[in-house]
Amino acid sequence: MRTLLALTVMLLAWAGFAATGLLLRDHPRPDAGAELLRVRLPIPVQLAYSAGDPFLAANLNVFRSLMVEARVTEQETYRVQGQLQADAAFFNPRHEDNYYVAAAILPWNGQVAAAQTVLLKAAQSREWDMWPAFYYAFNAMYFEHDMNKAGHWAEVAAERHPRNAAALRDMAAKWYERGDDPAIALNILVAMFEQSKDENFRALLAARIVRLQGLQKLREAAGEYRQRQGRVPSRLEDLIGHAGLEALPEDPLQLGYLLSAEGQPQLADHVKKQDSQ
To answer: How far apart are CA 88 and CA 94, in angstroms?
Structure first.
């Protein structure tokens, strides 16, 4: 009886949602472009819309995330994408595409917390898979600057991949000692680029790679500037002419770069760019 009642309520909820969609179909909508995300439904509604199937609900969220084009640089889209992928991880924490896309896209667009939510759930549930643990460790090191967390999860990845355990443990040791290093990030993105077969996804990764290469050149110039001038740079233009830097690197995503208070070049993410305007 309870099962029948629950099924009836679920069907009524789904019917109500479908009817609402039909009513709104002819209403004018903002011309935001098909590649932008604006809507994230509450989890119970997502489940009802998927006829009570959590795996279908997860797949729908991941599919929506994959539809974001590589040229998108709009903050709200990535905020909604982060929510959608976190919801997908709630429905199906083992979803491989979900954690892979989250690792490659979300943290590089100001959605570190969402990416880490997806990756942690995947790492905890996919006990045979080294990659979500490894990406979680990398984000902990590179974005969160939590070296203890990074080292721990790199060691977890090592336990799951005996063949590369020595290299992973060596990396864990280095992560305990090192902080923000674009060279490490470049290695990760290049590996993901080479493994991916999706052209849109590869285009997005290629843009991230070029962006990090620009950051690497800026940091080399900043290091030489400090040695020559005995002080830190006050603006990015000061770095031109140092370490072979002839001009400021162009960012394919048009977000640009920033100088930290210590004169260290940094990637400008969507949040920082918005706050500075």
So the answer is: 10
